[in-house]
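Quiz preparation item.
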């Protein structure tokens, strides 16, 4: 069990965060648990700069789970815009329906209940419980994993591993509020300073305590991850088709989608995928539209 303050490294990271944290709207006092859940769903594999305006407009339109649940899944997909991975919009809509029906319209605070919501996995459940309710949980995203891997374990680039959540939890202060503060601080340090390609070690508040620095910054010796291609993939075609559907007030004639992509076979495959995933529906007149209630 960690002591009440945590190890010295923890105090250094928290102190740094107090001076250098970005002013992100979902971190501000008074942000509702619903606002935190929306932010965590949007931030999955998506940069903060792209999420911020969409999050703000989303919360203005649907300030609570019942507000979104009372609308249609198609409007959620439309409002999602170009954040990518639009199935997250459907999962967030489904989560809003579940919150409204099962939890008296209030986002649950405990991890098991959060895990029961559509689209919520271990990371998101722990993050919402920690950041929205101040509970003591290890919140391990890629930024935290990289920072802890370097500063504590001396590895240039840590990979997901069994037991990593328990290890990070052993570093947390015993007091839940302090633990939550460290969790967000470690995440921020990994995002801004201890980055993947260009760690800014001279500005790091724990450079004198960092195991990776003390070991002489040994290079990464693990498997090489290949960058995923986007251009020319079905994912790109799906996005182009969704752009047309989002911009239309109603159903789009089938012919209007033909100009989106020259390869008819790939275009039809992408459209079929959208329908299978519930992101589009066939209209009675033969056209296509976003899903209705």
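Solution:
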């Amino acid at each position: 069990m960690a002591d009440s303050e945590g190890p010295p490294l923890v105090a250094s990271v928290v102190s740094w965060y107090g001076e250098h944290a970005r002013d992100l709207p979902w971190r501000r006092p008074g942000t509702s648990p619903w606002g935190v859940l929306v932010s965590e769903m949007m931030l999955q594999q998506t940069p903060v700069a792209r999420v911020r305006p969409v999050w703000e407009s989303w919360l203005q339109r649907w300030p609570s789970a019942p507000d979104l649940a009372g609308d249609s899944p198609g409007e959620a997909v439309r409002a999602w815009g170009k954040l990518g991975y639009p199935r997250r919009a459907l999962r967030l809509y489904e989560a809003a329906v579940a919150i409204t029906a099962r939890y008296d319209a209030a986002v649950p605070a405990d991890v098991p209940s959060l895990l029961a919501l559509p689209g919520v996995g271990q990371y998101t459940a722990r993050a919402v419980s920690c950041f929205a309710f101040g509970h003591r949980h290890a919140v391990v995203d890629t930024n935290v994993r990289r920072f802890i891997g370097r500063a504590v374990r001396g590895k240039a680039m840590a990979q997901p591993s069994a037991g990593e959540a328990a290890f990070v939890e052993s570093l947390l202060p015993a007091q839940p509020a302090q633990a939550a503060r460290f969790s967000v601080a470690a995440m921020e340090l990994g995002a801004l300073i201890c980055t993947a390609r260009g760690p800014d070690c001279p500005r790091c508040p724990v450079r004198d305590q960092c195991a990776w620095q003390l070991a002489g910054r040994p290079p990464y010796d693990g498997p090489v991850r290949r960058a995923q291609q986007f251009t020319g993939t079905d994912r790109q075609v799906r996005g182009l088709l969704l752009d047309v559907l989002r911009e239309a007030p109603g159903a789009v004639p089938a012919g209007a989608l033909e100009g989106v992509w020259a390869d008819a076979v790939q275009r039809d495959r992408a459209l079929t995928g959208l329908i299978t995933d519930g992101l589009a529906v066939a209209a009675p007149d033969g056209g296509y539209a976003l899903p209705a209630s």
